Amino acid sequence: MRVFPHGNMVNFKASVREMTAPELTELFNRVISEGESMIGGLIDVSRGEIYVYGHVEAVSLEGETIHFITRLENDESHQVGYHLSHLTISHETHFDIEDPTHGLLRHSVYYVTFEEEGESSRNEVTLFLTEEGKVSNPLDCVVEFWSQAGEIGRDTQFLSPGCSVSPDFKRNIRRD
C-alpha cells in the first residue's frame, strides 16, 4: 500500500506522519460526519484563486481513484476524482483564532494535494475541506492556514511503510 506524508499543524506546532489513502478517506469522512456543514474546493495560491465546489457529502476510494462528492447550491451533485499515483501529500491544520462574530475558537482545515496529469512541469492541485459556519470567513482561513502549513512534510519521504494500524483496528479486536 502506498504511503505518503501527512503534515499536521496545531497552532504553529508542526509534525509529519505516514498516511495511506484508506486512512485519509476515513479521516475526511469522520470530519464530514462530525461537522455541521462542510465545504470543499480547490486552492491555487500561485494564481491567487480559490474555488468552492459546494457542500462536501463524502470522500470515497474506488480502486486506485479517490473521489470527492459535493452538492452545489442548486442541489446538483459534483464529483472530482484523482488517481492515487498522483497524490503527493495531505495536511490538516488546527488554529485557535479570534473570530469577530464567534469569539475565540479552534478552526480546522484539511488539504490533499495531487500532481496534475499530463503536465511536464510540476503543477499541483490542492483540494480543501473546512466547516462553513463555524467562523465568519472560512475561505480566509483556508488561504491563511495553507500559507502557514503548505510546506510541512514536503521534504519527508516514507520509502517503506513502518508500523501502522489499519483503520478498522478497533473492530477486529477480540474481546474474549
Summarize the structure.
This protein is mainly beta and 176 residues long. It has helices at residues 21-34, 138-149; strands at residues 4-10, 13-19, 38-44, 49-62, 65-71, 77-83, 87-99, 103-115, 124-131.
Q: How would you sum up this structure, described in words?
A:
By secondary structure, the chain is mainly beta. It has a single domain, classed as Roll (PH-domain like). It is built from 2 helices and 9 strands. The chain has a 9-stranded mixed beta sheet. The two termini are 31 Å apart.
List the helices and strands and how they pair.
Blueprint lengths: L3 E7 L2 E7 L1 H14 L3 E7 L4 E14 L2 E7 L5 E7 L3 E13 L3 E13 L8 E8 L6 H12 L27
**Which percent range describes the beta-strand content?**
over 45%
* CATH class group: Mainly Beta
Order of helices and strands: EEHEEEEEEEH
Radius of gyration: 16 Å
Poorly predicted residue ranges? none
Structural class call reads mainly beta
Shape: globular
The overall number of domains is: 1
